[in-house]
Amino acid sequence: MSTPISADDQFYREYIIDHYKNPRNFGRLERPDISHEEDNPLCGDVVGMDFQVKDGVIEDIRFHGRGCAISQASASLLTERLKGMTLDDAKKINKDDVIGELGIDISPARIKCALLSLKVLKVGAYGLADLDEE
Amino acid sequence: MSTLTYDVTAVRRDFPIFETGIAYLDSANTSQRPKQVTGAMLEYFEKFNSNIHRAAYRIAEEATVRYEATREKVRAFINAASTKEIIYTRGTTEAINLVAYAWGRKNIKKDDLIVLTILDHHSNIVPWQILAAEKGAHIEYVDIDDKGELRQEQFAALLKRGPRLVAFNLVSNALGTINPAREMVAAAKKAGATVLVDGAQSTPHQPVDVRALGCDFYAFSGHKMLGPTGAGILYGRRELLEAMDPFMSGGDMIKTVRIEGTTYHELPWKFEAGTQAIAEVIGLGAAVDYLNGLGMDAVRAHELDITEYAYEVLSEIDGLTLYGPPPSRRAGVISFAIDGIHPHDLATIADRDQVCLRAGHHCAMPLMTRLGVPATARASFYVYTQKEEVDRLAASIKEAQRIFA
After folding, report:
1. B296-315 and B278-294 helices cross at what angle (nearest 10)?
2. From the CA of A42, how many Å to the nearest CA of chain B?
3. Is residue A84 part of a domain?
4. Which residue of B has its CA nearest to A70?
């Protein structure tokens, strides 16, 4: 009756579990230039990011938070991408980039989990109130 | 159907949705509907679709008779004194809002106390918060103990402060806790309070007798008791309903409308403005018939059997935390958490196995805060639930643990 989920299952690929269990750039920066946190009250996911920016370049980044594997792995993956990137380039990151990086089918019910970290970047780093404004 | 041998296989044959192969463990959210309910609605659409209470032709009379027949069925189902006390609403939420608006605005005054509980659903919190803010009243919440049961000594202490209103759910939708409602209502009435009981999670699952309960208002939804969405009930004691002004106004709730003013229709129609959810109300009547056919004692016994089984199966899984009281003191609802796996991830993995499991705050955010969790996973059971579905849930949980190991 139950379909076993194999390692090559579309969902919960190993690297997502890996990023969830061993998040990259996890923690806080002592003196961040930018710090912002967002939550998703519906499921209780929280993601916050600290940025250290010099001459328009993200020199260092940390994220903190709690929640489901999708929200936390997505944040971990995003910090890897952002480190060393100019804010101008960071601005160009969109929803499709973030979902593409996760590399899995995200159901409509889970899209907010996947995009929470992008919201933190958009609102925190350049003050967009709403993702849809991009 | 005999109450001695409950034939869940026969029950399931009335629910075509199970042919899809799903294990449906989210009945506290909304139940499935049997053919008898959808059939009654279809019959209305195909044979006597028309508006009620106004036309003189035959099919409109038939529609009116069927629509009003549900009222008597519901009255008998909850043992109200009169059909005048049975108000159709869209559901529990609208029923509570009706009371907050039509009773609350007249009766809640500045500095009045409203007593709610931490187990309450948002629909029995937010309308009172809005009312309290508007009137300058204040709200106290009865806390729970470690088992997820209301702290009765705290409730008793709050009653000493003379609350104007006490409102609570008979069964918690998030934990399944069955509150000692009869004792609580009696104590609250003795303290002089008006009492509203949220019956959204009790009416579908156990025999209900509003007169024995002794409450002033009792609210529930049809869609959690095999009926369609969009039809629910507010029961109110007649003298309270008589003294209340209308909630919604417009067509059908009036007796006469003149330019100088309007007189309202008598009970129960005073509270039923506009064209009603006719098919849905007829469907609700068919749902009540269906539940009566099973017998509410048999329904409760079946759910207790499934709940005890699920409690045992889930207890044996390492890293699983169960919330709430033991099965004998809870309805067919089990909230739980798995170490290291967020409820949403669990629900997504379960979904891959066609297991429908709820994950979230269950519209009870104050309770989640109290438990110190952002969300829980919740399995809930009903007349058609079989043990095999519980086994499938356990298999999904173990699969999730393997993936996240």
Report:
1. 80
2. 7
3. yes
4. B345
In this structure, is residue B1 part of a structural domain?
Answer: no
Distance between A88 CA and the closest CA of chain B, angstroms: 34
Check which CATH number belongs to the domain holding A47 and give it. Answer: 3.90.1010.10
CA distance A28 to A32: 8
ipTM of this complex prediction, to 2 decimal places: 0.83
Residue B21 lies in a domain: yes
Residue A57: what pLDDT?
93
Mean pLDDT by 10 residues, chain B (405 residues): 76 98 98 98 97 90 96 98 98 98 98 98 97 98 96 98 98 97 98 98 98 98 98 98 92 85 90 94 98 98 97 97 95 96 94 94 90 92 98 97 92
CATH of residue B282's domain is: 3.40.640.10
Q: Which range marks the domain in which residue B304 is found? A: 8-30+295-403
- Provide the total of helices (H) and of strands (E) in chain B, helices listed first: 15, 15
Q: What are B361-383's pLDDT values in tens digits?
A: 888 989 988 998 888 999 999 99
Between positions 312 and 371 of B, the ones with CB within 8 A of A are 340, 342-345, 348-349, 352-353, 355, 359-361, 365, 368
B330 and B377 both lie in a single domain: yes
% chain B with pLDDT above 70: 99
What's the CA gap between B287 and B299, in Å, rounded? 13
Chain A residues touching B21 at Cβ < 8 A: 1
B93 and B207 fall within a common domain: yes
Are B44 and B178 members of one domain? yes
Cβ–Cβ < 8 Å for B363, B375: no
**Is residue B3 domain-resident?**
no
Residue A11's Cβ-count burial label (10 Å; 0-12, 13-18, 19+) is buried
Q: Which of B96, B158, B299, B363 is catalytic?
A: B363
Considering the domain boundaries, does residue A130 fall inside one?
no
Beta strands B23-24; B355-356: pairing state: parallel
Q: For residue B382, give the DSSP letter.
A: -
Structure confidence at residue A47 (pLDDT): 96
- Tell which A residues from 70 to 89 touch B, by Cβ distance under 8 Å: 70
The CATH number covering residue B392 comes to 3.90.1150.10
Non-local (6+) Cβ contacts of B46 within 8 A are: none
For the stretch B50-83, pLDDT in tens is 999 887 899 999 999 999 999 999 999 999 999 9
